[in-house]
Amino acid sequence: MSKTPKVIVVMPAYNAAQTLVDTYRQIPPGYVDHVILVDDGSIDDTALVAHNLDLDLIVHPHNAGYGANQKTCYMEALRHGADIVIMLHPDGQYDPQIIPDMITAIREGKGDFVMGSRFMPPQAAL
After folding, report:
1. Fewer CB within a 10 Å sphere, N or C end of the chain?
2. Which long-range contacts (CB under 8 A, 24 or more apart) does 101-105 make?
3. Model's pTM, two decimal places?
C-alpha cells in the first residue's frame, strides 16, 4: 500500500452492554480511523451504552443473526471507505492490543487477510 490506509474497526454486537466500554477503550489510540458498532437487536442496553462512545451506531430492529450482523459491519466499513477492516467483538473475547500487528501485516504485504485467534497465546495469536 502506497498511501496510509484507512482503518475501520467494526464491532458486531448482541447484548454487549456490560463489556462494550472496556473493549472499546482497549483499542490502541492512533491506529484506527473509525469505529462502527452494529447492534443486532440486543435486549440489553448495548445501543444506549454505544451512544456514549465515539463511534457510529447502527441498530438492527430485530435479531437478524451473526451472519447478517457481519454483513452489515463489512458493508458499512466499505461505505465509509475502509482500506483495512478489523472485526472486534465487543464482548472481550479478542484482545484489541493486537490491532497494530494486524495492520502491520497487511501494510507489509504479508497477506490480504489476517485472522487472530483467542485460543493462541498472545505472541502467536496472528
Report:
1. N
2. 101/126, 102/126, 103/5, 103/7, 103/31
3. 0.91
Q: What was the pLDDT predicted at 125?
A: 56
**Tens digits of per-residue pLDDT, 76-91?**
999 999 999 999 999 9
pLDDT at 17 over 90: yes
| CATH architecture for the domain at 7-93 | Alpha-Beta Complex (3.90)
Q: Which residue spans within the chain are E strands per DSSP? A: 7-13, 34-39, 56-59, 84-87
Other beta carbons less than 10 A from residue 33's beta carbon = 16
Rounded Cα–Cα distance for residues 5 and 82 (Å): 8
In the numeric block, which cell numbers belong to residue 20? 462494550
Please, is 19 exposed, middle or buried when counting C-beta atoms within 10 Å of its C-beta (0-12, 13-18, 19+)?
A: middle
68: phi then psi, degrees, rounded to nearest 5:
-65, -35
On whether the CB atoms of residues 27 and 96 are closer than 8 A, the answer is yes
